[in-house]
Amino acid sequence: MVRIAAVGDLHIKGEPPADLVAAITDLDETADLLVVAGDITNGGRLIEAEAAAELLALSRLPILAVMGNHDRRCLRRKAFYSILARAGVDMLDGEIRVMSFGSETVGFAGIGGSGGGFWPDAGPDAVHSRALQRLRVKARLEATRLDQALQSLESHEVDHTVVITHFAPTINTLGVEPEAKYWMLGNIELGRTIDRFPVDLVLHGHAHLGNPIGRTPNGVLVRNVAQSVTGGVVVHELDRESAATATWPAFERSA
Ligand SMILES: [Fe+2]
Ligand SMILES: [Fe+2]
């Protein structure tokens, strides 16, 4: 069994809150790897990256992460990456990693993703606006890069495949987010891409008012690990049998 600790949307501005420090410190006692699903910092500032790096290093785990929209505000991307890299954070932007934990091998594909909407079910009304058209193009581009990453994983022998994104690949984990905001929260192209591959688990963040567990249209397990949704860090146990048989309670939208 492989134990993946996951959290998203830390939004670090300065000194991290004590409960977050407690949740991350010594995570190596309960998990094999830490995944951070974007929005590590609040404004993409280097000083925030320094604080986040210091916090994440407390986990004493290998760390895989993707950029969130808040991290993308950073104007000095290379410096941002290298501050986090010094703390052991491996930032994925359309790349894959193949990692072994004991006798099990896990393939990871990570990408930030984008908004764009969930047509035809929940596409934005104003699809003709130029900004939305641009977002659709970006959504397709990011999905294509994820597709390429997942294709390149196919040449590796892996026991499990995990996708890490910041934006949501399904409306299923958007919880009580207002429907009018869906187009900003994720896009269906990511979900469709994931559904073409034997993915066991998707970890995303960004939907702060979402719900913790859902599925892609074809039934791949999706966990929204935004800190505000889970209340901290979740540890997901990846094993072949539970991935195939797990059932999760359906989330009901409250009126
Ligand atoms: Fe966020
Ligand atoms: Fe975000």
List keywords for this structure.
disordered C terminus, 29% helix, binds fe (ii) ion, 5-stranded mixed beta sheet, Purple Acid Phosphatase, chain A, domain 2, alpha/beta, 8 helices
Provide a concise account of the structure shown.
This protein has 255 residues and is of the alpha/beta class. It has eight helices and eleven strands.
Radius of gyration: 17 Å
Q: Tell me the number of structural domains.
A: 1
Shape: globular
What is the CATH architecture annotation? 4-Layer Sandwich
Total count of strands: 11
Looking at this structure, what is the CATH superfamily? Metallo-dependent phosphatases
Might you state the CATH topology name?
Answer: Purple Acid Phosphatase, chain A, domain 2
Q: Which hetero ligands occur in this complex?
A: fe (ii) ion
* CATH classification class: Alpha Beta
Q: Structural class, from secondary structure content? A: alpha/beta
**Roughly how much helix do the residues carry, as a percent range?**
25-40%
Query: What integer is the average pLDDT?
Result: 91
Identify the strand order in the major beta sheet. Answer: 5-6-7-8-10-9
Order of helices and strands: EHEHEHEEEHEHHEEEHEH
**Helical stretch count?**
8
Q: What proportion strand?
A: 15-25%
Mind summarizing the main beta sheet? 6 strands, mixed
Describe this structure as you would to a colleague.
With 255 residues, this protein is of the alpha/beta class. It has one domain: Metallo-dependent phosphatases (Purple Acid Phosphatase, chain A, domain 2). The strands form two sheets. The protein has a six-stranded mixed beta sheet with strand order 5-6-7-8-10-9, with helices on one face. Strands 4-3-2-1-11 form a five-stranded mixed beta sheet. α1 links the parallel β1 and β2. α2 packs parallel to α3 and α4 packs parallel to α6. The C terminus is likely disordered. The protein binds fe (ii) ion (2 copies).
